[in-house]
Amino acid sequence: MKVAGMGIGSTGGHGDNPLRPGTVMGGGMSQVVDSPDEARKAARHTIKYGADHIKLMATGGVMSMGDEPGAPDLTFEEMKAALDIANTHGKSSSAHAHGALGIKWAVKAGIASIEHGMMMDEECMDLMVEHGTYLVPTIIAAYRIVEFGKYLPAETVRKATECLENHGRNLEMCRAKGVKIAFGTDTGTFFSAHGKQAYEFELMQKYGNFTVTESLVAATKNAADLLRMSKEVGSIEVGKYAD
Fold first, then answer.
1. CA-to-CA distance for 174 and 125, rounded, in angstroms?
2. Which residues are catalytic?
3. Share of the chain above pLDDT 90, in %
4. CA 22 vs CA 18, 27, 193: distances in Å
5. Rounded to an integer, what distance in angstroms lies between the CA atom of residue 80 and that of residue 106?
């Protein structure tokens, strides 16, 4: 396992606790920061306790309440401060990011991968090619929310629908431009259970016209490269964890 611990997000952003003041049950998924100094400290705190990876909440999300997927949460300066710590300590990084502006800031700040990227524009793609940033499309996360929408809050379904609307077209453009793609699923979201992630392969072919080979390479060679594990996994070679 390569673990990130708690992500780093902002007040009111994706991963923050949405419960009213004074409510003590539950908690957020992120360390909440509101300045570059706080972001820097959160990254150091995460690394101190053994994380292999720094995860940032760059934009709003689908399952969180009171934010919008297209809106940036962390500023460029906050992300840059956290990623300077991650990169100088040799840690990998990823950004939960749907909206185009948040994606651009994260890429320019030095992020290794964009998770979701469902509302990106062509400038995002060009920047990702320029910086060698990976995209992890996680189609299944939004797809299952829309598919089982009758059981879920209307706000969640609305946001997932908006995120999924242009995702297939954007993925085709990413492939054409040479954006690096790694397989990932965001498993654990609504109606996307552990052990059922293989459906993402079918969705990659349906939404982005990925070939079978491209899908398999995304899940093996590319994923190993993104996780900085290419010497151990990702291909069947002598000395690697395969037989």
1. 6
2. 55, 186
3. 91
4. 12, 12, 32
5. 8
Confidence at residue 38, expressed as pLDDT on a 0 to 100 scale? 98
pLDDT above 60 (res 25): no
Q: Which among 137, 38, 52, 121 is positioned nearest to 91, based on CA atoms?
A: 52
With 80 as the cut, is the pLDDT of residue 27 above it?
A: no
Extended strands (E) in the chain: 7-10, 30-33, 53-57, 92-99, 113-119, 134-136, 180-181
How far is residue 119 from each of residues 18, 111, 171, 176, 216, measured CA to CA in Å?
23, 17, 11, 17, 24
| pLDDT, position 76 | 98
Q: Tokens for 236?
A: 């069947």
pLDDT band at 220 (very low <50, low <70, confident <90, very high): very high
Contact 77, 61 (CB under 8 A): no
Q: Rounded CA gap, 51 and 29, in Å? A: 15
pLDDT digits (tens, 9 = 90+) for 92-118: 999 999 999 999 999 999 999 999 999
Which residues have a Cβ under 8 Å from the Cβ of 128 and sit 6 or more positions away? 103, 107, 114, 134, 135, 174, 179, 180
Q: Is there a contact between 172 and 208 (Cβ–Cβ < 8 Å)?
A: yes
Which H or E element spans position 100? Answer: helix 100-109
Token code pair at residue 96: 């939960």
> How buried is residue 181: exposed, middle or buried, by Cβ count under 10 Å (0-12/13-18/19+)?
buried
Q: How far apart are CA 196 and CA 175, in angstroms?
A: 25
Q: Is the pLDDT of residue 24 over 70?
A: no
Tokens encoding 25: 């049950």
User: In one letter, which amino acid is 88?
Assistant: T
The pLDDT of residue 163 is above 90: yes
